[in-house]
Amino acid sequence: MFLENPVNHNEQFGWIEVICGSMFSGKTEELIRRLKRAQFAKQKIEIFKPAIDKRYHDEYVISHDANEIRSTPVTSASSIRLLASGCDVVGIDEAQFFDDEIVQVCNELANSGIRVVVAGLDMDFKGNPFGPMPALMATAEYVTKVHAICTRTGNLANYSFRKAASEDIVMLGEIEEYEPLSRAAYYDAMREAERLKLEKNNQ
Is 94 a catalytic residue? Predict the structure, then answer.
């Protein structure tokens, strides 16, 4: 269950909220929604994203549905620690692209009384836990897993199938490169991709 206010208002600690899921599941949309609510309540907010993510805009976090909020691109998690001073709420998008220090930074911010809202892919295109996300989910007070709709079955999708041939774990992309799939559809797609790869190697 997700709560936006602690029960004990005398407690001076903040907390961590993680929003995770596959590509096209609405992670950034939910991140922006929570941050705009805090902004409307006149809380001081700051949003960070990895500097490598320039798909839509250098200085905005923008969802696939074109909702946006101004952000600060940073090259490392340690930069967030320096720039978040005095904030009530800190948002972090695409957390899977940060180094492992992001876990320590988020916990330090929460321990100093800041509400930390983190969004990121929980699995990479191979179906493995992605970067620091498992540790963030383990130490967070609240974890919200959102789902896309499978493009092949119409069922809930929690896998991000990469249609492009690249084997790089970090590869920014959109609907041309990635497809949200259900478990069954994902494993069918992976088997087919492996079959085509073997055929190509045997030619």
Answer: yes
H helix runs in 15-165, sequence order: 27-40, 77-83, 101-111, 133-139
Among 22, 42, 3, residue whose Cα is nearest residue 173: 22
Q: What is the largest CA-CA distance in the chain?
A: 69
Phi and psi angles of residue 183, each rounded to the nearest 5 degrees, phi first: -55, -50
pLDDT values of the chain reduced to their tens digit, one per residue, 203 residues: 455 555 566 667 899 999 999 999 999 999 999 999 999 999 999 999 998 765 554 554 554 454 567 788 999 999 999 899 899 999 999 999 999 999 999 999 999 999 999 999 999 999 999 999 999 999 999 999 999 999 999 999 999 999 876 666 555 545 568 899 999 999 999 999 899 888 888 87
Angle at 106 between CA 101 and CA 112, to 5 degrees: 125
Q: Does residue 158 contact residue 22 with C-beta atoms inside 8 Å? A: yes
Distant-in-sequence, close-in-space partners of 177: CB < 8 Å, separation ≥ 6:
162, 163, 164, 171
Contact 9, 136 (CB under 8 A): no
Spatial separation of the C-alpha atoms in residues 175 and 180, rounded to whole Å: 9
Catalytic residue (one of 17, 30, 94, 179): 94
Please name the helix (run of DSSP H) or strand (run of DSSP E) that holds residue 20, with its range, or none: strand 15-21
Bridge partners of 81, per DSSP, are none
Q: In which element (H, E) is residue 162 found? A: strand 159-162
